[in-house]
Write a structure and sequence with these properties.
Blueprint lengths: L2 E4 L2 E5 L3 H16 L16 E7 L5 E10 L14 E2 L10 E9 L6 H18 L3 E9 L7 H10 L9 E2 L4 E2 L1 H4 L7 H7 L2 H8 L3 E2 L3 E4 L4 E9 L5 H11 L1
Parallel strand pairs: 6-7
Antiparallel strand pairs: 1-2, 2-3, 3-4, 4-6, 5-8, 7-12, 9-11, 10-12, 11-12
Helix pairs in contact: 2-7, 3-5
């Protein structure tokens, strides 16, 4: 059960339909450029736990994400990511896994502590449930790959998935940076500037990505499949995350 408080922020599971709708409203604002009564919802919502990060001073919802727990790689075709990536390589993964999806932070609350609390909540869930692989889709805003060419070049150079887990192409429109950028040397400053904060956090913990990005016109994003084997997290960072989550 996720329930923690650090500083001015707290994280918890959604308990009511109203909680879930609050998360769907925030998602609509972040993913569809809207506000008000719009809801971002899909058929995967009822299959997931929804995590809310709230400002304890104002009561505002500042971040949300959802978790789908799978017993092992044999269940990965149930995931949201499996719509876009051919994931048969992960069928052999024999430990518990969880998909983290629809992660977003309220644009009016650009506080780095929000991301820290969200990861602390994720760490608490991982530890309590013996999760061995965390995965999902990490998104770049917009559908223009050229805007992020250095970020993609850096992903190709240093962060591609091990061959045994590498997702294959399934979506009709992709940017295959693993092939097209094989001669590109990334500008590190531009690469990190263009890297989404969530993906950046995955990478510093030892995460890896697919060799292509899916062009998602529905959400107006480019996204890469991202995996993180829990045993690969550097010990010092694991200790820090557990300290925050305790």
């Amino acid at each position: 059960m996720i329930k923690l408080r650090k500083g001015r922020y707290s994280a918890r599971f959604a308990r009511t339909q109203a909680d879930i709708e609050a998360a769907q409203k925030l998602r609509f604002m972040c993913f569809h450029g809207g506000a008000g009564e719009g809801l971002d919802q899909d058929a995967f919502d009822p299959l997931c736990h929804h995590v809310l990060v709230e400002d304890t001073r104002s009561g505002d919802l500042v971040c949300c994400f959802r978790l789908m727990h799978l017993n092992d790689g044999g269940e990965i075709e149930k995931s949201y990511s499996a719509q876009f990536y051919e994931l048969s390589s992960l069928h052999a993964f024999d430990g518990p896994m969880v998909e983290m999806g629809r992660f977003c932070i309220h644009p009016a609350h650009p506080d780095a502590d929000i991301l820290r609390v969200a990861w602390a909540a994720m760490t608490k869930y991982v530890d309590e449930n013996g999760v061995e692989l965390l995965f999902g889709c990490a998104s770049f805003q917009g559908n223009t790959a050229e805007d992020y060419v250095d970020a993609f070049a850096l992903l190709r150079e240093k962060h591609l998935a091990p061959k045994r887990w590498l997702p294959a192409v399934k979506a009709p429109r992709v940017f295959s940076f693993g092939k097209s950028l094989r001669f590109r040397k990334p500008d590190l400053r531009l690469a990190m500037k263009g890297m989404p904060p969530l993906l950046r956090t995955y990478l510093v913990m030892g995460g890896w990505v697919s060799d292509h990005a899916v062009v998602d016109h529905d959400l107006g994003t480019l996204h890469v499949f991202t995996g993180l084997e829990i045993k690969s997290i550097p010990p010092a960072r694991a200790r820090l995350l557990r300290k925050i989550s305790s």
